[in-house]
Amino acid sequence: MSEIAELQLTTLPTDLTVDQTIMVRGEHVLELPKDLYIPPDALRVFLETFQGPLDLLLYLIKKQNLDILDIPIKKITIQYMRYVELMQHLHLELAGEYLLMAAMLAEIKSRLLLPRPPCLETEEATADPRLELIRRLQQYERFKKAAEDLSDLPQVERDIFVVQVTPPLLETCVTPPAVLMQDVLDAFVTVMTRVRMFADHKVETESLSVRERMLIILDKINSESFVSFVDFFKKEEGRMGVVVTFIAMLELIRQATIEIVQAQPFAPIYIKARN
Hints:
Layout: H1 3-11, E1 22-24, E2 27-29, H2 44-47, H3 53-63, H4 73-89, H5 96-113, H6 131-152, H7 181-197, H8 210-223, E3 227-228, H9 238-254, E4 258-262, E5 269-273
Antiparallel strand pairs: 1-2, 3-5, 4-5
């Protein structure tokens, strides 16, 4: 709570002890001077000190190091009512929630003091009437602590400020260097040398196809019963023709379309259709 609020709480109630007052020029002040004039809006900050009745109760409990799970209702109620009377004395508008909390404290106090009739000895009736207030205080304390933790984090426009710097416009005048004719000739020689280093690589489709060579072999075998192995190879096709023809024969053998026969070892090899 702020010093202004603390000042108001310790100067106005008439039943406070000397230790609870403030010193003005070496004397204890127990009440406000009768000729003291306070403008209506002078204590507006006082209302903003607490965020509501739960905030006030939590302050009173922590100020006296009380256990929130074992609240002395009588003591807290008296202090709370002093605060309410203080605001009424200063002609400050009381929010309805403050009066509602005062009524709730009075009800809890009466339920603790008055004996319970035997006919109402149920579980709900015998429960501690402070439990609901304790639950609300604990919940409010958690939310308040979370809000304080969030407020401690760096915030833009409060702790962090975006720096905007506009760089100055600098006009520079760059004079291009002079080019000598020898430099131009050297560049031309470099380009010509680079052109000669490049070689064109042409990729052409092979005129020989394994699939076409397989069809040629089958046509030749179908027209003749036996065809010599060497008759399938043509000299003008070169090495590529030999490779393509041999691969075509192997593929037909794998498909069980043709077979290779030989009369005896080292005899000529023939190709014939498989029956």
